[in-house]
Each structure stands twice: as C-alpha cells, then as structure tokens.
Amino acid sequence: MKPRDELLTLKDAIQLSRGDIRELYKHYANSGLATMMSLINFDKRFV
To answer: Which tens digits make up the pLDDT trace of 18-31?
Structure first.
C-alpha cells in the first residue's frame, strides 16, 4: 500500500483490507503493537 496524503472517507475505511489496516496502523500509530497483534491474530475483523 502506498502512503496517502488525502483523508479517508468512512466508506473507504470500511473497504480497507486487513493488510491495509495493519500497514496504516504501523505507519501512524504503533508499529510494535501492530506486529504483536498480527502474530496472535488479534487484528481480525470480528463483525
């Protein structure tokens, strides 16, 4: 996934894949936590 300069709409955010969400979380929030959560499969969508 390439970096984005524009904001995401709600519709765009809902359509993000699991990998896209993980990459965005790594880049903008906490990369270590994103890695740990993916190792134990806590980065799944449950809905």
So the answer is: 888 888 888 888 88
